[in-house]
Specification:
Blueprint (H helix, E strand, L loop, with lengths): L21 H10 L12 H6 L2 E4 L2 E4 L10 E4 L2 E4 H9 L7 E5 L12 E5 H7 L1 H12 L14 E4 L4 E4 H22 L1
Antiparallel strand pairs: 1-2, 3-4, 5-6, 7-8
Length: 188
């Protein structure tokens, strides 16, 4: 062994301080020993529930959230939605085609008793925005140009989510065709 190398057995790095290399010296200062001590890593379950705070009946996610307010959890080298992870961990896998509806209406809640697997359409209907749209559209009897919404004059579009006045739609199509004919005539 060279006199200018680390005195720890098996280490050939250059001496830095107290006759040890920089790595062994830093380890000695931090732990009091040059031996590497590995701490046990917490499980996904332990990491998850360390980020949950029970507030009344809801289990609130206290770590990072998405722009929509849903919890984000890093698990197995990928980000997952926290309430979905909790439901699948504590209850069962979510069936294909179903979404979890927050019955408590708190997006940061991960309590599986507050989550109901339902189709997307049911989730949308139960949401606040769904109720507002239903009231807005369901309560309207006339279009913007005061044509009455009757079965003969109403076109249902976007999978039943919107109504359109057939009279206004026909007028818009005629105007667009006239504009295109006019643009084609001026281009020649």
């Amino acid at each position: 062994m060279d006199e200018r190398t680390c005195t720890v057995d098996g280490c050939e790095k250059p001496m830095w301080a107290r006759r040890m290399c920089s790595m062994h010296y830093a380890r000695f200062r931090k732990t009091g020993s040059t031996e590497l001590v590995r701490r046990p890593q917490p499980t996904s379950e332990q990491r998850f529930f360390a980020k949950v705070e029970q507030s009344g009946d809801c289990w609130l996610w206290m770590a990072s959230t998405s722009w929509g307010g849903y919890g984000i959890f890093r698990c197995e080298a990928r980000n997952v939605v926290a309430h979905r992870w909790c439901y699948e961990f504590l209850v069962a896998p979510i069936p294909d085609g179903l979404h979890l509806d927050h019955l408590c209406k708190v997006r940061a809640c991960v309590n599986p008793r507050h989550l109901d697997p339902v189709p997307q359409a049911v989730n949308n209907r139960r949401s606040e925005a769904g109720r507002v749209n239903a009231e807005r559209l369901g309560g309207a009897t006339h279009c913007q140009r005061e044509h009455e919404f009757t079965p003969e004059n109403t076109r249902i579009i976007h999978g039943g989510r919107h109504r359109q006045c057939k009279t206004c739609h026909s007028a818009a199509v005629r105007a667009r065709r006239a504009r295109l004919r006019e643009e084609a005539a001026t281009a020649l």
